[in-house]
């Protein structure tokens, strides 16, 4: 098996796509990726999505920053993606694992308040009691500063983007402490003209 550890951290990553519902979508996608500090993650963008890899704290920091900076344009923006940690094939981003644990985008975006809706689904891989691991997290989500609703195949979170990402981070973190390989899909929407 390849080495996915560096010090005490494991390589995490996220593959995500941003979809601004605007005729300015090219500008919003590219300027957002430009504006966000991605210096602490490995990053690759193509015509379908962007992939980032590094320490968990920085991966979540960058995904949240991309969504917030795009949403603050006021346009209806959607984002979907998959977080992953402990993937047996992941081993090349070790250089980014030396970074400190201070999230570099937090200060700049802490002032932005932005309501949003999110559906997420946890997939603890290779474990027989995966449903227990998932239910523990869904129950925990109830204590966080977000509205939690059960929907088919996912859990819905409504609230401020900062609180949604806090809930996503904690859910993913707690499962990955017990299960080596975990993935988590998410779908976010802000400024939608559709009422919930
Ligand atoms: C986060 C993110 N990364 C890449 C794309 C794919 N994409 C679609 S339009 C565009 C700009 C012009 O090439 C790009 C890069 C996306 N949608 N969201």
Automatic annotation (TrEMBL):
Chain sites annotated for binding thiamine: 18, 50
InterPro entries (UniProt xref): HMP/thiamine-bd (IPR015835), MTH1187/YkoF-like (IPR029756), Thiamin/HMP-bd_put_YkoF (IPR011522)
Classification via Pfam families: Ykof
Residue ranges occupied by any Thiamin/hydroxymethyl pyrimidine-binding YkoF putative domain in the UniProt entry: 11-90, 116-195
GO molecular function annotation: thiamine binding
Protein name as annotated: Putative HMP/thiamine-binding protein YkoF
Source organism of this protein record: Compostibacillus humi
Lineage: Bacteria, Bacillati, Bacillota, Bacilli, Bacillales
Name of the encoding gene: ykoF
